[in-house]
């Protein structure tokens, strides 16, 4: 499984989002989530251009921001998820350190009340 990103998400009138812009391993659903956020960020940019006459450079800001989000957030987390789940970080101390953060999460407690 690999990670890839287009070098830019806008070239002229073409704008990339989701799997057209980037791919990631499926561990944790970060590719899907990133794609949804791409669309969420692209909508107001396009709307500003079409409805308000905004400068098309707003799409360059979209491109830069979304690529940065993928390169610096989604992709590294997907790699960490894959390492943890599929490779167990080599086992031993490495695995214990990787799982330590998960163990600190507050457990979800379900309460059932009997009437």
List the helices and strands and how they pair.
Layout: E1 4-5, E2 10-11, E3 14-15, E4 22-23, H1 30-52, H2 58-87, H3 92-104
Antiparallel strand pairs: 1-4, 2-3
Helix pairs in contact: 1-2
Brief digest:
By secondary structure, the protein is mainly alpha-helical. It has helices at residues 30-52, 58-87, 92-104; strands at 4-5, 10-11, 14-15, 22-23.
What does this structure look like?
It is a single chain. The chain has 115 residues and is mostly helical. 57% of the residues lie in helices and 7% in strands. The protein is built from three helices and four strands. It has helices at 30-52, 58-87, 92-104; strands at residues 4-5, 10-11, 14-15, 22-23. It has a two-stranded antiparallel sheet. The radius of gyration is 19 Å and the shape is elongated.
Q: Which regions are unreliable across 5 or more consecutive residues at pLDDT < 50? A: none
How far apart are the first and last residues' alpha carbons, in Å? 51 Å
Specify the structural class: mainly alpha
Number of helices: 3
Q: Assess the beta-strand content as a share of residues.
A: 5-15%
Q: Encode the helix/strand succession as letters.
A: EEEEHHH
Q: In percent, how helical is the residue content?
A: 55-70%
How many β-strand runs?
4
Please compute the radius of gyration using only Cα atoms: 19 Å
Provide the spatial order of strands within the biggest beta sheet.
Answer: 1-4
| Shape field | elongated
Major β-sheet, in short?
Answer: 2 strands, antiparallel
Mean pLDDT: 86
